[in-house]
Amino acid sequence: MKRIIVLALGMLVLALLASGCTTQPTSTPPPVTTTGTVPPGSPIVGAWVLQSMTNAGTPVALIPGTTITATFTQAGLLSGSDGCNQYSGSYTLSGSQIQVSPNLVSTMMACEPAVMDQAQAYTRMLIAPSTWMVSGDQLTIQDTATGKNVLVYGKPVPPTTTMAPAPSPAGSWDLTAMTIVKDGSSVVQNPAGTIYAVFEQDGTVDGFGGCNQFSGTYTTTGSTIAVKDVITTLMSCGNQLDTQENAFLITLQAASTFENTGTGLTIMTTSTPPGKLVFAAGTAVATPVPPALVGNWGLTKMTKNGVAITLVSGVQPTAMFTADGAISGMASCNQYSGSYVLTGSSAIAIGPLATTRMMCSTDIMNQETNYLGILEKAATWEVSGTGTLKITDSTSSKNTLEYSKIA
Fold first, then answer.
1. How many separate domains does the chain show?
2. Which residues contact 79 (CB under 8 A, 6 or more apart)?
3. How many CB atoms lie within 10 A of CB 257?
């Protein structure tokens, strides 16, 4: 269950995006593409864990302690881990042929050189034109150019059943107090404004730090916890909130132990003196995504401060909304992806968004900046009787995006 307050941000990026593409000057953007259709019931859909990799005909031993994964969705989206960083993108199928978008976006963690080399080799093979085949619980992807680059995946091994459930921080939590370490001393603060965190059962965490939306991953062993790969939007809200948010996110990422009482969650760090985050149970409920919103939309009109912005000819921003809360599309020059949450009948929160890092002409980049600026501040949505999707941002009813459905 996710609650997302979308704001755009200027202070803290604890892990950034888009290691999977290279910045390349160009005068025109890539062509507008849509997420490929995946046949209903396709056996590729689901989560997979890499079991073996053959590079140029030579088997490559996977580095112990690294796990490489890929999750293919029915909507043509792809995400996973390359053993060092999380990545996401799209894919298309045509019979036994598969093409993964070369413009994958990813976090930008630094790992050991051997792990980075393994991740780069994996990504290179994944995005190459290939064939795919599922046999039982095994997925094989093999390049079509030489047939010597092969990725073999298996299904994830289900966790071992235990007699008693393991401790878990899963749930929606509102911060009520935090103890931070400042100048070698513990300082107790009552948070100004709203700060919350939602720990999902799948190992992801997202929330709002008082100024910006954040997301990341977490792992637990017994009552120990590690939070990592945190990314945020980039808005500044003034010295007090910025400083408070920075302290909260630093403490969250330094988490070492937790206690979940059902009505409260306490997270502790191992620093001396220790930091502490105290949460109470949250109450937000996300609204299911209605069929009217699901699909691929092309921008037809953009208004900023009540003035219509002329769209660059031949360059149409797009937005693909899926039923599972994912959003992706073309911003004008770059592809983007992220998540969204609906609340009530018309409220929407989008982000954080990850983008590729292509450079295009000034008019196209200006259009992209305006488009993403409104999209990441989205507050309301509606689909009219004529089939027009309208998104209004949270700062002004005069900032709007209007779309029509792409067949």
1. 3
2. 70, 71, 86, 87, 88, 89
3. 17
